[in-house]
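[Q] Does anyone have a clean structure-token version of this?
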Amino acid sequence: MIKSGGKLLVALYLLALTPVAAFALDFRSVSVPKAVLYDAPSNAAKKVLLLSQNYPVEVVVNLGDWLKVRDAQGGLNWVEARQLSNKNFVMVTANSAEIRQGAAVSSSLVATVEKDVVLEVADVKLNNGWLKVKHRDGAAGYILISSTWGFN
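[A] Here you go.
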């Protein structure tokens, strides 16, 4: 017979042996021209915000047809799942950020982008902290991941 303290010790031991699932953030992007965000998971709820197409959001709760999402400013609201896609976009969070030809500060400057600009992720593999992106106007290159938000 194991006493209650022993049960706790056994439980902790078994928990330590259990593999830990990797915690992955679930980022998605707005797939419609304007996505309506609500304060509750219902079309009858209060409309809180409109997000433009390609805006990245982080899914924090998934109820199937409705998703509770966090925006780049940290706001939490509900959106219909059908208004989002799995396409990868990031938002620039630095006051300005440089897109470089290669994944290095010494590489040629392609463009400078301002805060809140949304960029398409061109390659999901990070290269020493650099992410390959493409601007809607065609400029493509590498940006420091630390100056963006919305990447898995």
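[Q] Thanks! Anything notable?
[A] The two ends are 48 Å apart (CA to CA).
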